[in-house]
Design a protein that fits this description.
By secondary structure, the protein is α/β, with parallel strands linked by helices. Helix content is 33%, strand content 16%. The relative contact order is 0.14. The structure holds adenosine monophosphate and magnesium ion.
């Protein structure tokens, strides 16, 4: 058996020499590079096939390092970092000088977070610097929540893969614009809107649409998407819609809502019963979508959960998975 400490040292060495390391976090697996090495950061974009204008998140070992990576730390940002780090919250702040524009997609802001995973934290501590990382998947596809997902999708393109087991949150971090007094959510994720509102003491707006370049409902560019086309319907229509699609000759996967699951017979090629707990749903979501691909489904019928708690992030990901497949 390999010793975890040796893996951490080896992975930190890879980062120091400009290589790429896939690392586990509590949200999803990341594809990491030394955040201060513009050449290494450019390779992250190449490996993912990601447009260079889509910025990465800089991962740090502790909240105490925040001031070294951003131009200024407003009071709200300090409060949020102290409350939620390590954890699935990313703060967008004015870019510090040591962050190359390659990592921020040319923006004068930088996204920063401290992940809540012992392997990620050990790597960050051993490396000492910041690790710029997006999710370790090809651009537009489903984020990886196990090391096997990373191996299957990126394999040899990554210099080192750290295996930290399955991710416990399962959806990406909540990205918050923390530059002003009241933060706003640019992407819903593992920290709920309600938890943020508790801490800041006021309503927190979700401006994810603006951040994603999405102008109108139904126009969500495809992202976080399996190969199969995803169709969203009302919960009580899931079974009937699956049946119709099968009659039309589709190989159909069904994401069956918990209330519907009781007592309904669903005819489909693959059925995943969604857990009633939103935490378990988020944890399993990307694996369910991958399972439909493995089963060869070309169409997935699903419905959206309520938009509170982690449901907000799940709704966001399912809507993007169902978005038009033209490049957005
Ligand atoms: P990923 O973890 O693959 O989703 O990639 C990082 C995410 O952080 C992307 O959705 C980016 O759009 C977002 N992000 C990174 N930096 C910024 C920034 N400065 N402003 C807004 N969003 C950002
Ligand atoms: Mg991603």
């Amino acid at each position: 058996m390999r010793e975890p400490g040796k893996d951490i040292e080896a992975a930190a060495g890879v980062l120091r020499s400009g290589g790429l390391v896939a690392l586990p976090t509590e949200t999803v697996y990341g594809l990491g590079a030394n955040a201060e090495d513009a050449t290494a950061v450019r390779r992250v974009f190449q490996v993912k096939g990601r447009p260079p204008s889509h910025p990465l998140i800089v991962h740090l070992a502790s909240a105490g390092q925040l001031g070294e990576w951003v131009e200024e730390v407003p009071d709200t940002a300090r409060v949020l970092a102290d409350r939620f780090w390590p954890g699935p919250l990313t703060l967008v702040l004015p870019r510090g000088r040591r962050v190359p524009l390659e990592a921020t997609g040319g923006l004068e802001t930088v996204a920063v977070r401290v992940p809540d995973h012992p392997v990620a934290l050990a790597l960050l501590a051993a490396f000492g610097g910041g690790v710029a990382a997006p999710s370790a998947n090809r651009f537009g596809s489903v984020s990886p929540t196990t090391a096997d997902h990373v191996r299957a999708e990126l394999g040899d393109a990554v210099d080192f893969i750290l295996d930290g087991g399955p991710c416990q949150v399962g959806v990406e971090s909540t990205i918050v614009d923390a530059r002003g007094g009241v933060p706003s959510i640019l992407r819903p994720g593992g920290v709920t809107r309600e938890a943020l509102e508790d801490v800041v003491g006021s309503k927190v707006a979700v401006t994810a649409e603006a951040a994603g370049g999405v102008r109108a409902p139904g126009q969500h560019p495809s992202h976080y998407a399996p190969r199969a086309r995803v169709v969203l319907v009302e919960p009580e229509q899931v079974a009937a819609q699956a049946h119709v699609a099968q009659e039309q000759g589709h190989r159909v996967g069904v994401l069956l809502p918990p209330l519907v699951a009781a007592g309904v017979v669903v005819k489909a090629d693959a059925v995943v019963e969604v857990p009633a707990s939103m935490g378990a749903f988020a944890r399993g979501l990307y694996e369910y979508l991958r399972e439909f691909d493995r089963q060869g489904c070309d169409l997935v019928v699903a419905s959206l959960p309520a938009r509170d708690g982690l449901g907000l992030a799940i709704v966001d990901r399912l809507r993007r998975a169902a978005g038009p497949r033209t490049a957005g």
